[in-house]
From TrEMBL, chain A:
Biological processes, Gene Ontology terms: transmembrane transport
InterPro entries, sorted: MetI-like (IPR000515), MetI-like_sf (IPR035906)
Superkingdom, natural source: Bacteria
Keywords: Cell membrane, Membrane, Transmembrane, Transmembrane helix, Transport
Protein name: Oligogalacturonide transport system permease protein
Natural source organism: Ruminococcus flavefaciens
Keyword Cell membrane: yes
Cellular location(s): Cell membrane
One Pfam family cited in the UniProt record for this chain: BPD_transp_1
Domain ABC transmembrane type-1: 67-260
GO cellular component: plasma membrane
From TrEMBL, chain B:
Pfam families with a match to the protein in the record: SBP_bac_1 (PF01547)
Organism of this sequence: Ruminococcus flavefaciens
Keywords carried by this UniProt record: Signal
Matching PROSITE patterns: PROKAR_LIPOPROTEIN
SUPFAM superfamilies in the record: Periplasmic binding protein-like II
Lineage: Bacteria, Bacillati, Bacillota, Clostridia, Eubacteriales
Alphabetized InterPro entries for the sequence: Bact_solute-bd_prot1, SBP
Superkingdom classification of source: Bacteria
The protein, known as: Oligogalacturonide transport system substrate-binding protein
Range of residues in the leader sequence: 1-21
From TrEMBL, chain C:
Occurrences of domain ABC transmembrane type-1 (ranges): 69-280
Entry-linked InterPro entries: ABC_transporter_permease, MetI-like, MetI-like_sf
Residue spans crossing the bilayer: 12-37, 75-94, 106-127, 154-178, 199-222, 264-281
Protein name: Oligogalacturonide transport system permease protein
Cell compartment(s), UniProt: Cell membrane
GO cellular component, one term: plasma membrane
Its membrane topology: Multi-pass membrane protein
Protein origin, superkingdom: Bacteria
Family: Belongs to the binding-protein-dependent transport system permease family.
Biological-process GO terms, alphabetical: transmembrane transport
Classification of source organism: Bacteria, Bacillati, Bacillota, Clostridia, Eubacteriales
Keyword annotations from UniProtKB, A to Z: Cell membrane, Membrane, Transmembrane, Transmembrane helix, Transport
Amino acid sequence: MKKILLYLVLAFISIIMLYPLLWLFGASFKSNDEIFTTIWFMPKSFDTDVYKKAWETVTPYTMGHYFINTFLIIIPKTVFAVLSSVLVAYGFARFDFPLKKFFFALLICGMLMPSIVTIMPQYYMWSKLGLLDTYIPLTLPSLFACEGMFVFILIQFMKRVPKEFDEAARIDGCGTLKTLFFVLMPCIRPAVVSIAVFTFLWTMNDFLSPLIMIQSVEKYPLSLALRLSVDSTGQGYEQKKIIAMSVIGLIPSVAVFALAQKKFISGITAGGLSG
Amino acid sequence: MKKIFLKIAAVCCAMSLSACSAKTVHKVTKPDGKLDKCSLRFSWWGGDDRHEATLKAIELWNKKHPDITITPEYGGWDGWSEKVTSQVKGGTEPDIMQINYDWLISMSPDGNGFYDLDELSSQLDLSQFDEEVLSFGRVSGKLNAVTVSVSGRSLFYNSEVFSKMGADYPETWNELMALGNSFGADGLYPLDLDIQSGGTAWYLAVVYVQQQTGRQFITLDGRLGFTVEDIKTALSFYKQLEESHVIRTVRTRTDEDGNAALYQSPEFIGGRVAGVLEWGSAVGKYESVLAEGVLEAGPLLTDENGCSDGWMIKPSLLYAVSKNTEHPDEAAAFINFLLNDEECAEILGTTRGIPASHKAEAALKNSGELKGLSKESDDILRNADTVTISPYMELSRMKEFYNQAIESVSYGTADIDSAAQQMFDSVNNYLEKIRK
Amino acid sequence: MKSRIYRNSVGVSKFTGLVLILPFIIGAILFIVYPFVCSFVVGLTDNSGCLSFNNYKNILSDRNIRQASMVTLKYTAVLVPLKLVVSLLAALLLNCELKGIGLFRTAFYIPSILGSNLAVIIMWQYLFTSDGLVNQLLSAAGIAPVGWYGDTNAALFIIVLLRVWEFGSTMVIFLAALRDIPKELYYAAKVDGCGRIKAFFYITLPQLKNIIFINLVLQTIAAMQEFNAPYMITGGGPLGSTRTIGMYIYDEMFRYGDDGTANAVSWLLFVIIGIIVMLMYKFTSRLRRD
């Protein structure tokens, strides 16, 4: 009885959480009129033609092209972010060194500064280096552990792994890096996965930095390509096509999340921390 | 120790001052009168139809001039001016740009922000434009940009609703006010005015006062033409529109539509709100959410004597060349192609409004493409005694002043007198700050 | 100068740590210190490019900035506690061994991957308009419909609701921490005749205090910098009641092209956030240590 009640509560909340997505999917088959006047998700009819049109976009490139562009940014960025954050967090969590407090304070300061502010100086810097309209301004900064929050979370996780683990590895003759990758990493894997997933999702949704750094449409990532179609000022304004495009645009995020879900949520909650 | 540290800090500051404001001084490349092999960047914003047509036009150009490749850069309006603003600040803007009217003020306050197109007249045929149209693009005597099309805001109505109500389209301000009675009885509104980025609420109020007084709200050289009294009249006019149920109050409008544009609003699509004030070049999106032929152009409102003064026009878009371009001749040749080439004009159609170039307009007339609501609106405005909008009036900071005044009057958080005084002061201060 | 002993494991030099954080040191100079200095310096320059404190002086007397600061503080004060409570409750609910619980966990998490994606914004618009779903539900329940967007308080609350709905990442961190609490503690409590609610207050909460603090800090920082949601959902209105400092900075920088003011305000925001986080740290340090 109690179990059924629990299931009912969970199901009810899940519906609240997921309804918008369902509505969105349904809306991609609706006419302008229908979208704006009904809140019920089921469309009157399913016409998959809209997805074909959405895939082709209005540019000379299909959405596939923009997907590839997006991945050209996301994959290096994710790898860079994970590698550098882990290294730096390791340094902060396990070693004592000169000016440690100062650098840690700097890390926290970086988190407090609104990101809108740092984008313009960066833009000038890349423009002086002649690297605008390449993916370098979007990916390279990740190599330097700039996302303070990631380092911060990793430090918290590493601190909870008993120090005796490291000592034991050292006695067995492991070097500094070996200790990190073979002893610590397995213990903090959920945190690493979540950092990778966060980087992926944030980059998918990021709009402002590619807008400023990328110039030619050929190199646009998905988020920019989507915006390009939203502001339809001409005749034949069709909301459903835009919604269909954003539905397609959500697929990678949802897919990555579904794939990582086991590691991400189950892994993070499976008690991997208590060692 | 401390002193040394301070000194180092001071030096760092001085160095970063130059590093932070990436102002690199480029030499302006002089035209040499020849077309060389090169590649040019061209940027514009717009909707699907404009993108498609422009890309086709570029294809045609590449066929005619295989030596000069054009790299397109385009996007939606959202975020576009932010992008170009940062490009111009960093000196990385494209060679050729489609620009908005007020950018002339914000990006080239002294006339040196863009290339002086008068120097490029060997490639660019300016004789196709009326001198008045050309003057829109002049800043401090320098031709910074060429007008693509001229357009103005006029009124459009939902014909189904009007015929159901047995009402004619209003011709005078009094008739408009009177419509509120009959429409209001059924819970309908004959018109919609907004305080979003469009800011049609203040726009219509300005037209009303300009027609009465003959004074221009903001003069072309950026001075406030209205007195405090004029602003008061405008604000009370707006308040009266709300009170006579001609338009929804800001509160009701916001509750019903949120931050969505009118053409996405169920109230407009469902016909409860039956009219809109819009640029002739941008009315398509309103047209397409209603059944075909339902939206119709209405007459400009006049006073009792039929005087239509006070309605306004402006260049809806302009083309400009970057002052940093290394290929001014080629850039000018490309602009000439976009503006004056007959074949190109047919491809572009009216995706950027009714062309201001005589040649292009004639080409469209011949191919029978000059029709539809934007053409009707264009004709209506052409027959009226219009004034040119000052680019200063269009600046986004100014729009914030207008919208704030309207909003506080509508919500009743300020009385008309103090709202008018505050707007008068802020507008004056701001204009003074940027005018020099 | 006083010398310090660096306590590292045997055979580790005091520079190993420095080498490891070398990427961060480089990154900090390029992407934190340099933009920091830049933004401070740009904040010091007025329109004509001269050095002056005018921008900093002006922002202290500007009515709009004062309003934006109040909005931001109010938003943070409402959102952060609400979000923490909701995500903690959700985590407690999901912290059980039911069949198919993974499915529910995914469902609870999904909204937060959407961020302020366009799709969500469109959706939110139709939920809260006059004839939107929320008002339909309210009137079905016999409650008078609310004018959400036009009311200054309700409009801010719409944005709070969006961010609360996206509680996934906070929830996941709580879930992880809940799993870490030794089960024996609960068994012992049960033996002592301790009820569930009592166990929550005497075992769960004290065990979670560090994690609660981390979430509190992260969420406060995020809330203080909020820009996307109000920008897209309400556009800052009505009457500026949803215009956050983040939005103010964006407008000054990009819409109005006033870099000086934008950067000066950023520094103001930076200092406010710094003070708040420091106060939180100070006030909770006793609680966290016990």
